[in-house]
């Protein structure tokens, strides 16, 4: 998570703890944003208006690797990268792409 926070792809919106996932264009400008709540008793899932889903949340691996993991949501992307890490694999060697489908934070 620290890598995602450092790259400004993940941050906490407010004191309640909404997670914000950001996708960037080639120009480095934020183009996509989805938010989800972290409180099980109060589900929350929203996309920001005027954001372009063709620039989804993703993690870019080494350019020499052609393996891409496609997931439904940013949480799934983070989970897949974490599983690689826990297995002793270099998670940064692969590419991860979120399709950004609704209901993505549950």
**Structure classification:** alpha+beta
What sequence of helices (H) and strands (E) makes up the elements? Answer: HEEEEEEHE
Mean pLDDT value:
83
What's the domain count? 1
Beta content comes to 25-35%
Q: Given the structure, what is the number of helices?
A: 2
The parts where pLDDT drops under 50 for at least 5 residues are: none
In order across it, which strands form the biggest sheet? 1-2-3-4
The residue fraction in helices comes out at 10-25%
Number of DSSP strands?
7
What global shape is seen?
globular
Tell me the layout of helices and strands:
Elements: H1 2-6, E1 10-12, E2 19-24, E3 30-36, E4 45-47, E5 58-59, E6 68-71, H2 74-86, E7 95-98
Parallel strand pairs: 6-7
Antiparallel strand pairs: 1-2, 2-3, 3-4, 5-7
Tag the structure with descriptive keywords.
106 residues; four-stranded antiparallel sheet; alpha+beta; 17% helix
Description:
17% of the residues lie in helices and 27% in strands. The longest helix is centred in the C-terminal third of the chain and has 13 residues, at 74-86. It is of the alpha+beta class and 106 residues long. The protein has one domain (2-98).
Question: In short, what is this structure?
Answer:
With 106 residues, the chain is of the alpha+beta class. Helices cover 17% and strands 27% of the residues. The mean pLDDT is 83.
């Amino acid at each position: 998570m620290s890598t995602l926070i450092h790259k400004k792809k993940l941050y906490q919106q407010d004191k309640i703890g909404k997670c914000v996932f950001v996708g960037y264009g080639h120009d480095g400008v934020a183009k996509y944003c989805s938010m989800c709540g972290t409180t099980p008793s109060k589900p929350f899932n929203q996309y920001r208006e005027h954001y372009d889903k063709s620039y989804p949340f993703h993690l870019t691996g080494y350019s020499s690797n052609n393996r891409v993991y496609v997931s439904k949501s940013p949480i799934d992307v983070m989970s897949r990268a974490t599983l690689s890490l826990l297995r002793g694999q270099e998670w940064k060697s692969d590419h991860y792409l979120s399709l950004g489908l609704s209901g993505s934070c549950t």
